[in-house]
Amino acid sequence: MPFKSNFLWGGAIAANQAEGAYDVDGKGLSTADIQPFFPDADPTRLNFNQLDRATFNQYVHGPFDYPKRHGVHFYQDYRRYIDALAALNFKTLRLSIAWSRIFPRGDEAEPNQAGINFYHQLFDYMHTKHIEPIVTIFHYEMPLNLVTTYGGWANPKVEDFFDHYARTVLTEFHHLVHYWIPINQINLVDREAFASLGIFKDQTPNYEEVVYQALHRQFVASARVKQFATQLDSNLRIGVMLADNLTAPQTCSPEDIHANFEHNRMQFFYSDVLLRGHYPTYALQWFYKHKIQLNITQSERELLRDNPADFLAISYYWANVTQASPATATGWQTHANPKLKANRWGWSIGPDGLYIAVSTYWDRYQKPIMIAENGLGFEDQLTADHQIHDSYRIDYTRQHIAALAEAIDAGADVFAYCTWAPFDIISAGTAEMKKRYGFIYVDIDDNGNGSGNLYLKDSGKWYQNVIANNGLNER
Ligand code: BG6
């Protein structure tokens, strides 16, 4: 069998998409709490991840429906969800801590004790059910105050606030949590500057430079987490997380092949910095060409050099292609592979890309890999007798686990596979509920109505078997 006997089978969620209770027990307002739901919008065109100031102000002042404020009530109901995952033999659940539950405004000296208590109880409970928590420290939500008062990660103070927050949670929970991911999908800053950095599109005339300088702060913040964790507890493992975006050339024209090469090389930039410990020359050249001047100090260089991450976490959803596009600033465009089927949200299904990605990253870094997220959103139909016949989800997951097994057979060291998301939660991109990912159906609709009951889907029974067999039994 390709999977090790202690392989961590599980799933992944984020606090802001599941917990709800957005103003309970002292939690502050976060960037995710002001994301509205637009029932009539074309879901492929919504983009909360890049906001200008005027749109942000509209969202803050409403009135809109804000689904992430109620989530799926995980804050109150976590025992019920953890029990349901334990019944499927889950070995791990990757989840995040809500920054604004620990530091409601982000800039306080002392943490909110009620927030700390919640995660103590949650992680303790997970351990009683033999489910190992893998924790993301920052997953698309930061205290809103850090955006409105400080300008997000454009401000160096935010790096220090994050460091204080990260040290606080590492100190509190290091005996309960072994694997930590400082920042979700650190490589998506160019398209998610608001969600990842709290920066508005029109915040500054030199937007691109400010975004990459803010990214540099996140690199340094990640290295600071690693440095602190090493001193705190030698059992801790700190990861770097990428959303896999490696592409194939759209055609075999030399222009597309070249554009694809350049695109992919810049995809490696993030993990090259955090796993190899320095800025690669190709990236410095790219910044030079794009007239981006970064301020990188000697002590930061040394910090990055001395504190590389321990593992690589990858989220994998789709398979895209790159086409040469001389008129664009980058020289390329990427889009869904037209040869593949896609879901209603335009996300293509390409399991072989997972084999290629895992193998490529392994060959490049030789560092342990975890699949931090993998899944596809579908509209499920709940039958009158509370069944969900989701053979499409079984097909998707089976094909991706087979691709992962192939990469392991070919040498990759993979220690965990987390599906996104094991039970239905609010969509990150569209804030809707009907884009469902779970093995467990959560009876809540787009407007937050429903019984809240949990129903096991066909895919849940199937995944339970996969875990029990430590892999696909049809191999
Ligand atoms: C990942 C994010 O990129 O995509 C998750 O880390 C997100 O937070 C997932 O939920 C799926 O995206 P969406 O928009 O379908 O929820």
In words, what does this structure look like?
This protein has 475 residues and is α/β, with parallel strands linked by helices. It has 15 helices and 13 strands. The chain has helices at residues 15-18, 53-61, 74-87, 99-102, 113-128, 144-148, 156-173, 193-197, 207-232, 254-276, 281-289, 298-306, 352-365, 391-409, 458-468, and strands spanning 8-12, 92-96, 132-138, 179-183, 237-243, 248-249, 311-316, 320-324, 332-336, 369-374, 414-420, 440-442, 454-456. The chain has an eight-stranded parallel barrel, surrounded by five helices. Helix 7 (156-173) packs parallel to helix 9 and helix 9 packs across helix 12. The model has no long low-confidence stretch (mean pLDDT 96). The structure holds 6-O-phosphono-beta-D-glucopyranose (BG6). Residues 14, 17, 140, 184-185, 243, 315, 373, 377, 420, 427-430, 435 line the site of 6-O-phosphono-beta-D-glucopyranose.
Identify the bound ligands. Answer: 6-O-phosphono-beta-D-glucopyranose
User: What is the H/E order?
Assistant: EHHHEHHEHHEHHEEHHHEEEHEHEEEH
Rg, Cα atoms, Å: 21 Å
Structural class: alpha/beta
Portion in helices: 25-40%
Number of helices: 15
Outline the biggest β-sheet: 8 strands, parallel, barrel
Mean pLDDT: 96
Low-confidence stretches: none
Strand content: 5-15%
Please list the strands of the largest sheet in the order they lie side by side.
Answer: 1-2-3-4-5-7-10-11
Query: What best-fitting shape do the alpha-carbon axes yield?
Result: globular
* Separation, N- and C-terminal Cα atoms: 9 Å
- How many DSSP-defined strands? 13
